[in-house]
């Protein structure tokens, strides 16, 4: 039986898919994220938080291979309050496929190193299949 995945959110930088069977949200970034304004990124993340609650998703898979948005320290504080804390209350795990861009990858890793991200396991992978396997193992 094939699992049904449905696109639940899309903008010019990213697509978000929900798989009801695996209770997973898959966030797939594209290279246009390099040009993404911070306010659009914040709006997208707030929508992800809302959708994760509405859809009863327990896992998030982020394919960051084409994610090129670098987050500064000011953004980290906003993210902790508005994204990391609410997600850690709903989510069981998050897996990221790493960005090849060093500065982007460091900023993504730092954003979940804060105390709020520790309520849920978060791991970073180079391989998407390995990331999905870890995400869905009990």
Automatic annotation (TrEMBL):
Gene3D superfamilies: SpoIIaa-like domains (3.40.50.10600)
InterPro entries: SpoIIAA-like_sf
Protein name from the UniProt record: SpoIIAA-like protein
Organism this protein belongs to: Sediminitomix flava
């Amino acid at each position: 039986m094939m699992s049904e995945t449905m696109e639940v959110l899309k903008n010019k930088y990213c697509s978000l898919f929900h798989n009801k069977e695996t209770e997973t949200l898959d966030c797939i970034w594209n290279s246009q994220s390099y040009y993404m304004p911070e306010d659009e990124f914040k709006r997208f993340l707030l929508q992800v938080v809302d959708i994760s609650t509405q859809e009863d998703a327990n896992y998030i898979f982020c394919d960051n291979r084409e994610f090129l948005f670098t987050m500064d320290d000011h953004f980290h504080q906003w993210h902790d309050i508005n994204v990391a804390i609410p997600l850690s209350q709903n989510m069981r795990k998050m897996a990221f496929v790493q960005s090849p861009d060093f500065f982007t990858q460091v900023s993504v890793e730092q954003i979940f190193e804060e105390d709020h991200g520790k309520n849920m396991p978060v791991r970073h992978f180079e391989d998407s299949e390995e990331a999905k396997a870890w995400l869905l193992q009990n």
